[in-house]
Amino acid sequence: MIETVVFPVAGLGTRFLPATKAIPKEMLPVVDKPLIQYAVEEAVAAGARRMVFVTGRTKNAIADHFDMAYELETELEQRGKHELLELAQKTVPEGVECLYVRQRQALGLGHAVLCARSLVAGDAFGLILPDDLIDNGDDPVLSQLARHHAETGASVISVEEVPREKTRSYGVVDVESFSGRSGRIRGMVEKPEPEDAPSNLAIVGRYVLSSRLFGLLENTAPDHRGEIQITDAIAELLNEQVVDAYQFEGRHYDCGSKLGFLQATVDLGRKHSELGADFSAWLENL
C-alpha cells in the first residue's frame, strides 16, 4: 500500500485565464467536483492516507476545500439538508491527513516534488498530477500502479500511446518488450521532437516512485529554462533501480488544456448519476 501521495499544485494555470486569475486551476469544477477532488479520491481509493499538496501563495482555496467548513456545515445541519452535509463532510474521509508545503519559486515539476520530501513517509510514494484526469471508476490508475509496485517492488509510471507528432508535448519512454500491460524502462526523454522520440509512449501524470528519487532530485541539474525535470531524476534512478512503464486502463483527459477540460466535462456529465440522462438527451437534441 502507498501511504503518501504528492500533488504538485503550485502552477499559475495561465492557459485558463481569466478564470484562474483568482481561482486555482485545480479548483475548477468538472461537473460538480473540482479537479483536485478527483485526484484525492483516486489516492484514497489506492489506500493512501497522507495527502501532500505542494502549493503556491495563490492556492489557499485548496486548503480551504479540504478543511472543515464550520459555518456551511452548521447551516446545512440546521436546515435538515443531510445529503448536502454529507457531501461537504466527505471531501476528506475519516483518517486521511492533508499536509501543505509551498514551492516558493516555479522551478519545475522535479523541484515541486523535492519540496515534499520532509512530508513523505515510507520507501515509496505516489504522485498525481491533477491536470491529468483519468476516468476508470472501478479501478483507478493509482490503484493499478500500486498493485504493480506491490507485486514487483519496481517504481512504476503510467504511459499511453500518443500520435508521434505530439511527442514534443510529453515525457516519452524507451521500453523493453511488454509483458501484459507493463514493460521495463530503458530510458526517457523530456518533450522530444517526433524524429528523436524513442517511442510514442507518453508519460501520463501517475507515478509510484522510490523515495530514493529525492536524493537524485537534489543533484539534478536545471534544464535550459532553469527548471528541474523529474524525468531527468528518474533517468538517473534507472541506473540504480528498476522502473517500469504501465499502460493503464482508463480514459485520459488532459485538463491542463481547454479542449481536454471540455471533453471531460461532457463525458463525465453524461455519466453523472443525477444529470446524465437529461444531459445526454439535451446533447442529442442540439
UniProtKB/TrEMBL annotation:
The keyword Nucleotidyltransferase applies. It is an enzyme of class 2 (transferase). GO terms for molecular function: UTP:glucose-1-phosphate uridylyltransferase activity. Pfam families: NTP_transferase (PF00483). GO terms for biological process: UDP-alpha-D-glucose metabolic process. Residues 10-268 form the Nucleotidyl transferase domain. NCBIfam families: galU. May play a role in stationary phase survival. This is UTP--glucose-1-phosphate uridylyltransferase. The gene is galU.
